[in-house]
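## Example pair
The file below holds two records. Each record gives the amino-acid sequence first, followed by its structure token line.
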Amino acid sequence: MRFLRVGNEMWDMSKIPPGLGLYTLRNETKKDFFGTLKKVADMGYKLVEFALDYEGIPAAEMKKELERLGLKTVSTYVSPEDMENNLQNQIDYAKTLGAHYMVTGFPKERFADESDFPALVHSLKTMGKEVKRHGMLLLYHPHAHEFEKRNGKKIIDRLLEGVGRDLMQLELDLYFVRKVGLDPKSALLAYSGMSPLIHVKDIDKNGDFTEVGYGIIDWPSIFRIMESVGVKFYFVEQDVSPHPLESAKKSLDYLKSIQ
């Protein structure tokens, strides 16, 4: 049985608690952050992953509200611009929340010029060292473009090799893994021990976003190997939905049915 300290509690990791990526509800949190968090907690989620914007809410206030609602966070996704230009403030906020991981990723245009690649590696290495110095781990979230090959290797593999896996690991997004034609289960096995977090995100037969369990990814087979490949937490996420709160609930209900 594995245990992991989350805040002041020790969690039994033989059953990974359900998490939600707040990027799913970015429009809702802009209008009412705390009201949206309450709806997330009421659905039955135990974890949230912050994404890009705290809407000006001080970190201590955000932490207090999470505790009041019975929610926890272990990670926050930060834009590469904020990581490069505002790193210490981002680290301070994440530490106050109790995060173990800070996640980022470069947009496709940053890889357009091969001569810029060493600078990207240097930037990530700088982030990784500082994040590690503060007791957390930097994770890179690859989208579709990082699975493209340059100089005979996938961009994501070149980044991992250049930065060093002691300074940076991954948050695999299984929608994008499938979007580029790879098998999500095989990808998790290939990056075994390298992706402590994953995004549980489904894809339909047309390649569009859909609720977990309503697309073409075989989730039961993935959940069976999560522990063995080193996944500690997962976050449901759906980039596009006409009714994001309803989608988050549908995904959670499906996941409860298979665990």
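Second record, same layout:
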Amino acid sequence: MIAVLLAAGRGSRLRELTARKPKCLVEIAGKPLLRWQCEALRGAGAARILVVRGYLSHILTPEAAGLEAGSFETVENPRWEQSNMLSSLLCAGPWLERAFAEGQDAATISYSDIVYPPEHVRALSACAEPLAVACDLCWEQLWRLRFNDPLLDAETFRQTDGLLREIGGKPQNIAEVQGQYMGLIRVTPHGWAQIRQTCAELGEAVARMDMTGFLRLLIGRGIRVGAVPVQGRWCEVDNQEDLRRYEQALRSESWPHDWRR
């Protein structure tokens, strides 16, 4: 297994915390986000890790994340200001294709503003589908910590028989959100070929499409996407208030979203 971390964006909602460094170098629980991610991916068996850089790319090195030199490879998204995570993923395409040609059988793709344990990556790796996403069944508790009304930010998510059926809509009630898409994706060489072909057909529209919209498009075309459930033990960092609330929650030994346990 190999891994790709999509880390090109600035994270402007973190304000001054990202004035002089990329979002993935912001610290939580004593470590940069990127270090937590790399340690989880290595712990799950990732043989190689690629970081897609953009904003302040010269700063984004293994040493800056508290890792050993050579801990990850890099590639640039030169249009990071005008594009999105899907565009960043396409920047990793040549690297992925070389690794697949050399015999790697799957890749984990991760957002760079989330933290999670190796067990979630292993659960995702065990899915037999060419494409799969991890989803948190305990999402509501995390969203209630972050938002007064969890439905203001939540998106619809529905799965049956281990397959994703709906994602990315505006829910009217909690029942329409069976889980929360976490920003962790697994692709095999066949799954990557499906992504690449669909993006080629979209053309310039790729830069205007978010990842959940893209996943919705894939399943709408009849492409199978596995849905792998996990129970808590992760979180995403969107703003300074998230950081404050997480640090407070981490003081409790029973917080179910503590990824360090």
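Notes on the second record: The helical segments are 33-43, 85-91, 93-101, 118-125, 139-146, 189-202, 211-220, 240-249. The longest strand covers residues 180-187.
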